[in-house]
Amino acid sequence: MALSFDHILFPTDFSNNADRALPFAAEIALRSGAQLTLFHSGTAAMDMSPGFQKAKDKEIHDADEAFEKLIGVLRRDDRYKEISIRTLLQSGNTLNNILSYLKEHKPDLIVMGTQGATGDRNILYGSITTSIIQKSEVPVLAVPYGSTFDQFKNIVFATDFKESDLAALEQTIQWAELFDSAIDVFHVAERQNLEAEIRFRGFRELVQSQTTYKNINFHLRYEYDFFPAAAEYIIDHPASLIVMCRYKKTFWEAFGERNHSKEMGFYSKIPLLVLIGKKEVDYAFKFEEGVQV
């Protein structure tokens, strides 16, 4: 399951939240050679309503101006003049339009700016971004308003040692190679016992034996609750990006239950890359003699 970028989708509502996320999308597109699509879903009146055509024309005009402004700001950096950028305006429900676009065009990555407030997951990431993360079949990079682009110098890969975490880690390594990033593989075990130690060492040794990427380290913490352990870890090991897999009824649902928890403040400043966890995966790591974990 190799990670490749030919097409990056950047949905925008032309807010400051979205504007701050655009350099993230642009830098990834530049380094990967991907096409960048700026996507806006408008809310023009229904075609049966009075003044529909006038409202529609104004919406198109305003969107075109907003697109030109975004592209103009990007082009101030000469490096970004090399990026292939297209724009798309659609009318209707924003969530449905994005999901329809994903199904039809199958981009390789979605980059979305988010509100970045502390508290409820829908407040932290916004209801549309939350829904996209839950339903998308392609990776989603959620960029909180409070985050600052630093070339993804330090990536934290959160793992629960699920089967497709191996492929997800290989994707993360491929991402890190674009930016020469350091990767910290991070696991929280509920209890300090032999089983937890064996699982951690086994995963570490398997990865180390199958990858040539050198700037990767492994960390094990013991804590009943993942979130305060992760927050404490990030204090000691500042992160530029958190990577996790989306599984049914696992991390992402638990994330939504952290209403007004103080440790959520850390996640309001760090971009989150959500990869798709699947039961059946194409193994990126090669296992000798057909052995799989």
Key structural traits:
293 residues; Rossmann fold; 10 helices; 10 strands; disordered C terminus; Nucleotide-binding universal stress protein, UspA family; Rossmann-like_a/b/a_fold
Concise description?
With 293 residues, the chain is an alpha/beta fold.
In CATH terms, what is the fold-level topology of the largest domain?
Rossmann fold
Number of E strands: 10
| C-alpha-based Rg, rounded | 20 Å
- Tertiary shape: elongated
Q: Order of strands across the biggest sheet?
A: 3-2-1-4-5-10-9-6-7-8
Percent helix range: 40-55%
What kind of sheet is the major sheet? 10 strands, mixed
Unreliable residue stretches? 116-125, 259-265, 280-293
Count of individual domains: 2
Q: What is the architecture of the largest domain at the second tier of CATH?
A: 3-Layer(aba) Sandwich
What is the CATH superfamily classification of the largest domain? Answer: HUPs
Question: What's the CATH class label of the largest domain?
Answer: Alpha Beta
Oligomer: single chain
Amount of beta strand: 15-25%
Q: Give the class from helix and strand content and strand pairing.
A: alpha/beta
Tell me the series of helices and strands, N- to C-terminal: EHEHEHEHHEEHEHEHEHHE
What does this structure look like?
The protein starts with 6 loop residues before the first strand and ends in a 17-residue tail after the last strand. It has two domains: 1-148, HUPs (Rossmann fold, 3-Layer(aba) Sandwich), CATH 3.40.50; 150-293, Rossmann fold (3-Layer(aba) Sandwich). The protein has 293 residues and is an alpha/beta fold. Strand 6, helix 6 (165-179) and strand 7 (182-189) form a beta-alpha-beta unit. It has helices spanning 16-32, 52-75, 94-105, 121-125, 127-135, 165-179, 194-210, 226-236, 251-255, 264-267; strands at 7-11, 35-42, 85-91, 109-114, 140-144, 154-158, 182-189, 216-222, 241-246, 272-276. The protein has a ten-stranded mixed β-sheet, sandwiched between helices. Helix 3 (94-105) runs parallel beside helix 5. The radius of gyration is 20 Å and the shape is elongated.
